[in-house]
Amino acid sequence: MKQIYFVTGTDTDAGKTLVAAGLLHKVNESGLRTIGLKPLAAGCDETPDGLRNADALILQATASVKLAYEQVNPVALREPMAPHIAALRENRRLSSDRLVSFCRGTLMQPADFVLIEGAGGWRVPLNPSETLARVPQQMQIPVVMVVGMKLGCISHALLTAEAIARDGLTLAGWVANVVDPDMPVLQENIDTIRASLRAPLLGVVPRLEPCTPAAAAEYLDVEPLLTKK
């Protein structure tokens, strides 16, 4: 049975891709087959092969199951902005049904562990009536939350966790990713969030140099995600 999780962040640039790729790398080491998906990406470069998003390329390269780029990132938008706005500027319309269909099609591939990375935070709009949260809701999959550790992160983390619960989904775990290396009372902030959430802390990822999936994996614990529930 596949273990499938949706990876969300407390904000844009919270470190979702670094953490997701680190988790994939860690699971790869156990010999399990992994897939990383980024169904929606806003902010892509023109290449000879078409539009490419840097985060999606990292997931594609890190996962052990090798997929075509279009399977990893089926909806690629040029401009780095809120996806619904970027889509409107390209005369396209986003919908959760379409994104879920893409994900489910790719998930017919044999795999043991799958991460589906969101875009931005939990309530990123897709259209006037839907947010990206509808994707994990429709798929009924648990969530991994990446908390960007910086001033304001406690409120961001607790509000995101509350929204996930309100949407009827399980927070399977969270990761503290140090965005601001000079953040005062970092440990006290981590301790406060940890005491407020029932979900396990999967790791604290410091500022890394080099910033690679392998380096992030050293600070992550995947066992809570691999345990059958």
From TrEMBL:
Kindly report, in one word, the top-level EC class recorded for this enzyme: ligase
Tell me what reaction this enzyme catalyses. Answer: (7R,8S)-7,8-diammoniononanoate + CO2 + ATP = (4R,5S)-dethiobiotin + ADP + phosphate + 3 H(+)
Places the protein is found = Cytoplasm
| Enzyme active site | K38
One term under GO cellular component? cytosol
* One Pfam short name: AAA_26
Function of this protein? Catalyzes a mechanistically unusual reaction, the ATP-dependent insertion of CO2 between the N7 and N8 nitrogen atoms of 7,8-diaminopelargonic acid (DAPA, also called 7,8-diammoniononanoate) to form a ureido ring.
Q: How does it assemble?
A: Homodimer.
Q: What is this protein called?
A: ATP-dependent dethiobiotin synthetase BioD
Give the organism's phylogenetic lineage.
Bacteria, Pseudomonadati, Pseudomonadota, Gammaproteobacteria, Oceanospirillales
